[in-house]
Amino acid sequence: MIVIIFAIISIILCDFDERMRWGTYKPQLIHAVTQRNMKTFNPITGALMYADHIGTDDRSLVYKIPDLNTEQVKINPVHHNGKDFNVQVISDPNTKSIIQTTLIKFPIESKVNFVDEIKTLVIEKPLSLFYVLTIEQFNQFNLETRTFQVNVTNHGIRVSTYNEDETRIEHFFITITVNDRNYQYNCTDEKLSNLTIRTLFNDYIFNYDPRPSLMQAIFSNSTNANDSNLVAIEFRAQPGDNVIIQVTQTDKYTPDYGFDNLEQLSDSLAAINKFNFKKVFGTDNKCAYSSFSNLMAGLLFTYGNLSCVINKDTCTAFKPMLSHTPSRFGFPRPFLWDEGFHNMIACKINPDICLQSLEDWINTMSIDGWIPREQPRSEELRSYIPWLKEDPRESNPPTFFFNFEYLIDNHPEYKERIGKTYLKLFSWYNNWFRTQAIFNDKGKFSGFLKWWGPDEDSNLGSGLDDWPRTDGSKVSKYNIDAQSWGYFFTYHMAKLARLYDVGIVNNLEQRLELILNKMNSDMLDPTDLIYKDILYYPNTDDQVFYSPHRGYVNLFPLGLGLIDKSRVDIIQQHINFMRSSTMWTQFGIRSLESNSTEFRKKSNYWTGPIWVNIQFLVLRALKLYYWEIDGVQQFYRDLRSNMIETICSQLETRGYFYEHYNQNLDGLGQGNRPFNGWTSLITLIIAEKY
Predict the structure, then answer these.
(1) Who has the most CB within 10 Å: 128, 326, 633, 689?
(2) 486-510: string of b/e by CB count within 10 Å (b at 16+)?
(3) What tens digit of pLDDT does each residue of 233-250 get?
(4) How many CB atoms are closer than 10 A to CB 562?
(5) 10 contact partners, CB below 8 Å, separation of at least 6
(6) DSSP H helical segments within 77-184, as ranges?
């Protein structure tokens, strides 16, 4: 087992891109710069915190994205390219402040690795700004012994420690300017000083733990010892102050001065960032650019194990993962089928990050081919959802193959690297079919698929959680969306096999034909030409029924391009179905027909609201596969226009992208916010880059 672990780590290290060593990889925090430390997996992190300047015991320290119950605090990633440049503006009416953060990373050959700047744009009442540096303990097999050394000079505050393999010194040089004047760091008069430096050796808290212990640690247990692993630098700003806290990070020299002209450099990089965006996506649309920046701001790096129903090897093993996240506050952890959608954007502009994310996901696979659906791989991430346990019987739509297809078709330089994942992908494919396919009494694949769920009407694995799968006492026998994804998975495995394993192509093509034939012969309702779930009464196989529920589930054969374009009648009937008053709204297509007995029932999650990812699949399929069919182009234009208006108008008026949108009268954004996940597909919808 030890040999296997070290072999996996060594493979990862060989492909490590030093340019991705630092980043905003803790998206659940207001602002943090942390390491993708691939040696000890114990990163150094620097983060912004702020609080009302009142009595110490009464402060409400802000370091996480605020509670969902308020929309007052606005967090706007103005620019974020996922790699080396981001600017974010935080507007908080509770503290009557506006704060801008800017992170600029420099090329590897530069003396400086990055500059992180905190700048106040508005302060209307006293405000305490904190920059907190910590050495985190994520790897329980490599106990961290490094500590910080703090030196205050006439020019700033230098915080130093060894790097992860103790071969170099990491320096963080902090400077503070107030109203364009350098701060006097060595002021000894406490009445005149607005600066406090607190240090702490912390052996019981995970960095930025969402629980109150961080506040207690900083203010109650701080010492002035020079052997700390947490340094909190507090500056108390007054109304009207223009404060700039600048952190220059390097491991190449001992810094004693800050970085000049950062604003000018930031403006230049912003122009370059917008130019590169337009070059890739063919648009400079403000909503599309903001959507992309929000997605990049959700990129996370984590390391740890999982909590599972059955402790398989991937659950107990500590593994690294780089992945985008659906929502910086609501879902600050990786989700499998979400990441396939995220990477449809990321692959186009950051193919290296896209492929690294895919490799990290594949490397979390268990020995028998299971990839967990959600992966909060750290105590910190699990503290947001402590009850979550992954179940190896549960799978998720294999959306990663959108990404592999794009990379192979557009980046031949990655063909060999992708080939190294092929055997694992085939193992995943076999596991997916073992758990979701229906086999006959002789153990032979029947040609049908059904999602496994903990009960008959719960399908987290399908991605459509509470979408109705039963009707009275009738339960699912086959699921049309599982059938569609099964075909999609097999098609793309056959495409990969033609490159890497030609000997199995014929078997996969036979399975493709079987799945499609069963879908057309048994799951297409002849009365309305709509593909449907098949229901039956338990403990009997005598009679089957088409599910009476219609909505997103029924759109997957169209959305994945499985309907033969010669069947114009079926395609047009699906257009008519989506146009019907029970599905169509001026804001997008409902997830469930309004005349269904389950409409807006259960959690009202996938039983009515409008979700961007399904609209995207429909638009993509119409454009790529069915464009010449009568009626398609007008429907496409109408749906695309509705989606752009709904999402971008909500961004303009309320300042956020949302998880889903109200299907009723107003199209208002609902659910988690900021939702930097697949709602970012609006970038591709605007750009028409499918």
Answers:
(1) 326
(2) bbbbbbbbbbbbeebbeeeeeebee
(3) 999 999 999 999 999 999
(4) 20
(5) none
(6) none
Which amino acid is located at 77 in the chain? P
Sheet containing strand 475-478, edge to edge, reads 475-478, 534-536, 544-546
Inform me whether the pLDDT recorded for 221 exceeds 70: no
> Is a pLDDT exceeding 90 seen at residue 430?
yes
Residue 462 CB contacts under 8 Å (≥ 6 apart), including other chains = 397, 451, 453, 479, 481, 482
CA distances from 152 to 149, 185, 250 (A): 10, 7, 17
- Answer yes or no: pTM beyond 0.85: yes
Dihedral sign for Cα 201, 115, 357, 328, please: positive
223: which DSSP letter?
A: B
Q: Roughly how many angstroms between the first and final C-alpha of the chain, as a whole number?
A: 42
Closest of 501, 395, 534 to residue 452, by C-alpha:
395
Distances (CA, A) of 19 to 23, 137, 157, 332: 9, 23, 26, 23
Top-confidence residue, 219 or 237: 237
Winning range, highest mean pLDDT, from 161-170, 244-253, 538-547, 657-666? 244-253
Which residue type occupies 427? S
d(CA 113, CA 111): 7
Both tokens of 388, joined, read: 């979550």
pLDDT in tens, 358-377: 999 999 999 999 999 999 99
The chain-wide mean pLDDT, for the chain, equals 90
Q: Are 16 and 41 contacting, i.e. CB atoms less than 8 angstroms apart?
A: no
10 has pLDDT over 50: no
The C-alpha angle with vertex 177 and arms to 174 and 182, in degrees rounded to 5, equals 95
Cis peptide bond N-terminal to 674, omega within 30 = yes
pLDDT confidence of residue 210: 42
Give the position of tokens 């529920």: 549
* Whole-number Å distance between alpha carbons of 684 and 287: 11
Per-residue pLDDT, averaged over 323-340, amounts to 95
* Sole residue written with tokens 């220059």: 248
For residue 542, what pLDDT is reported? Answer: 76
Residues 6+ apart with CB under 8 A from 634: none
Rounded to whole angstroms, the Cα distance separating 427 from 419 reads 14
Q: If you ran DSSP here, which 8-state letter would residue 66 be given? A: P
In 5-70, where do the E strands start and end? 22-23, 32-35, 44-52
